Amino acid sequence: MDDFVFEFKDIWKIYDMGEVKVNALRGLDLKIKRGHYVVIMGPSGSGKSTFLQIMGCLDKPSRGEVHIDGINTSHMDETKLAAIRNKKIGFVFQSFNLLPKLSAQENCALPLVYSGIPRKKRMAVAKELLTRVGLGERIHHRPNQLSGGQQQRVAIARALTNDPPVVLADEPTGNLDSTSSVEILKILKDLHREGKTVIVVTHDPEIVNEGDTVVWIKDGMVEKVEVK
Amino acid sequence: MEILIETFRSLIANKTRTFLSMLGIIIGVMAMIAVVSIGEGSTRSITDQVSSLGSNVIMITPGFSGGSGGRSVTALSDILNVNDAQNIQELCPDVKSVSPLLQGNYSVSNDGNNANATVFAGNDKLMEILDLQLGSGRYLTGTDESEYAKNAIIGASIAENIFEDTNPIGKSILVTYSVGKNRVAIPFKIIGVLKQTGSKLMYNPDKMLIIPFSTAQARIFHNYGTISTILVSAKNSEVSASAKAQIQHLLYNKFEDEKKFSITSQDEILGTLSGITSVLNLFLGAIAGISLLVGGIGIMNIMLVSVSERTREIGIKKAIGATRRRILLEFLVESILITLIAGAIGILFGIGVSKIVEQIGKQYNLVPIVSWQSITIAFGFATMIGLFFGIYPASKASKLSPVEALRYE
Fold first, then answer.
1. Could you read off the pLDDT of A174-201 as tens digits, one per residue?
2. ipTM for the assembly
3. Residues of chain B with C-beta less than 8 angstroms from the C-beta of A175
């Protein structure tokens, strides 16, 4: 039997906008194998973002089952979902989402605060990870003292601090120039090589070639899965 | 502990905002401590003044007549006389000393120097009952009384005004009053000078002229046995109430109407006055408490602003694994920390204000008393307010959906 890191069974997401009900996801089925590099493509309005939020446990589906790393999360409460987000998923956002008042090292160490790791250990882990993404010299810089590419590297390091099985990236190069984009994509590729499951959600066709699997989403459903 | 350090840093990073949110609590705590300490100080000052009136003093005065059916109220005269004083002394076991009292304002002079004096005429127990001390000279004795001696003891400011730097003892002083168109001046020999005391609640010993009762009756008041007041001292404070009851019983037997006389003890004056001051203190304390409450609402405002300002931050924290409880705690700790620091500053300022009032109030015998209770109450109240007004913003922050919060710009 295959080892799946994500299993989505008949996922529906319905937004109740008063008089109108919007079906963002309409019975989406998808399984993602461990260790794959998956690119999820789709035009805006396809339900791609909603799917990403459900994948990242930021939101719950209206109907359907989600299994993450073998755990059924469909009926979990907010506190348990927070733990899943903390331990199982490393988030990388389009707009980096670093806390402006914390240094790179503190930003990077933040997920460990929520898993109750003592400060000394946290800082050591954060320093090591920042060195790995090439920011060993800049651990005390604040986000506004770093370039976009560097900020995104801090964000990737932060995503890795709890050593999650999945790195989930939402348009990771969307706010970057082409040089920085290349750097970030290289880091993601390296992570994949080291055995992480990398999922990138994008509408940028140039990233399609990065992954070994491409999932096309349209009208709240999986249109096709392309395995290379 | 982690949260505490982190919160502390963010407070320092936002100095102006932190200060503004603290201001209300600082002022509230300061006002509360200042008001309570000034209140306690003034209560103490009033208590002191009342107890300086004498030792366990009971005053007997005539009652009032009339007042109903359009008649005006007048104090009864010719009610109390010297025999009543005598009877009280002999028949009331808990009474220590009794003195009849005649009192009036007269002009006194020596060698062209004038002053207005309050003439107090009583027997040799008068000064003991009123707890008046001699600065120099001798007390009035039973002999002065029986011999109708024209001897007098004068207050400190009379001595100063009339005799300036010279020693008044042995000198003479003229007490002047008018009968019809004639002015009568009676010379008295000064045998003693009172210690300076400052003004007391009902009289000022510094402006007194104390003379024997017999002399005053015959020479100045011409009242032939009736008196306006009988002063009594109880044996000690425990029997003060029973002494009062004994006097009451005695006088009721004579007058058969309790409205014809009134008996007031020092304890009752104290009770009435401290009742008034404690109501006042409560009232002022409540106003200070309200300002503390307003300060708390100020903190809630700032915290609510801070929640919406930091919506995105909350979203990020939630996305990387912060639980609701954690976010709640972060905001709650922040508001409590703000109130604690503000409370501490408020206490210092409050003590400062009390010290300033102490400097100004010295001349009115007002010394504010900063008590541990007032500090504890103000601080505890402030902390509770921080907690109470922190809960709403904190719970609002913790309930934000991560999706919504991340989308917030």
1. 889 999 999 999 999 999 999 999 999 9
2. 0.93
3. none
